[in-house]
C-alpha cells in the first residue's frame, strides 16, 4: 500500500533566504554523492537562478558530480534571452567549473519539431537515469522550482490538459498562456518521483497564490499538485513578504 506524501516543509526568511537555500543544496549534493557518486538536479528559470549565486565560488560544491537538467524550457535557441538555459548559464554556469557535458539542454536541431524535441529530451533523461536506476520514472536528487502568480510551475498551467499527463516524462505545449507559447516541460510523474523538490518564492506579489497553494491545496492549482511520493520531500523557501498571508505552519531552518 502506498504511503501518503510527506507534508510540505515551509521555511520563511526575513533575510538570508539565498544563503539557506545554498546550504540546503550543498547538503543534498553531499548526501547524493556519498550514496551514488553523482548529484542529479533540475532547474527552472524566472527569478530562481538569481537565488543560486551562493553556489559560485562555494568550496562545498563539487561541480564535476552534477548532472543538470531543465524542469521546463522555452523552445527558442539556447542563446536566446527567453531561454532558461541562457539565464542559468549567464547567472551561474559560465562562472563555475561545471563540465559542459554535465548540462543537459534541449537539442537545437529539433526546435522546429516539438514532438522530436520532447522525445529527444526524454531520451536524454533515459540515458542518465534508466541505465543507472531501475525506476519507472527518473528519481532526481533535487528539483528546484518557482511559481507564477497564477499558481503555475514548470510549464504546467491552470486548466491545461498536461495536468493529467501520467505516462510521458517530457511533454510539449504550443499554447502557453505566457509567451513564448512553445515550451517543453517535465510532467507530474517526474516531479513527484524526486527525492526532494524545493520551491522558491519571494515578494508580496506571491502572497495570495502561496496561501492558495498551501492553505487550500484542494483548489488544485498546478503547484499544489507537486507532492513527491513517499519518501520524497517537498520544501518551500520563501521570504516573509511572500508568506505574509500564509496560515500553513512554518518550520525553523537549520543547515
Automatic annotation (TrEMBL):
<dbReference type="Pfam" id="PF01182">
    <property type="entry name" value="Glucosamine_iso"/>
</dbReference>
<dbReference type="InterPro" id="IPR037171">
    <property type="entry name" value="NagB/RpiA_transferase-like"/>
</dbReference>
<keyword id="KW-0378">Hydrolase</keyword>
<comment type="pathway">
    <text>Carbohydrate degradation; pentose phosphate pathway; D-ribulose 5-phosphate from D-glucose 6-phosphate (oxidative stage): step 2/3.</text>
</comment>
<feature type="domain" description="Glucosamine/galactosamine-6-phosphate isomerase">
    <location>
        <begin position="17"/>
        <end position="236"/>
    </location>
</feature>
<dbReference type="GO" id="GO:0005975">
    <property type="term" value="P:carbohydrate metabolic process"/>
</dbReference>
<comment type="similarity">
    <text>Belongs to the glucosamine/galactosamine-6-phosphate isomerase family. 6-phosphogluconolactonase subfamily.</text>
</comment>
<dbReference type="GO" id="GO:0006098">
    <property type="term" value="P:pentose-phosphate shunt"/>
</dbReference>
<dbReference type="InterPro" id="IPR039104">
    <property type="entry name" value="6PGL"/>
</dbReference>
<protein>
    <recommendedName>
        <fullName>6-phosphogluconolactonase</fullName>
        <ecNumber>3.1.1.31</ecNumber>
    </recommendedName>
</protein>
<dbReference type="GO" id="GO:0017057">
    <property type="term" value="F:6-phosphogluconolactonase activity"/>
</dbReference>
<comment type="function">
    <text>Hydrolysis of 6-phosphogluconolactone to 6-phosphogluconate.</text>
</comment>
<dbReference type="InterPro" id="IPR006148">
    <property type="entry name" value="Glc/Gal-6P_isomerase"/>
</dbReference>
<dbReference type="InterPro" id="IPR005900">
    <property type="entry name" value="6-phosphogluconolactonase_DevB"/>
</dbReference>
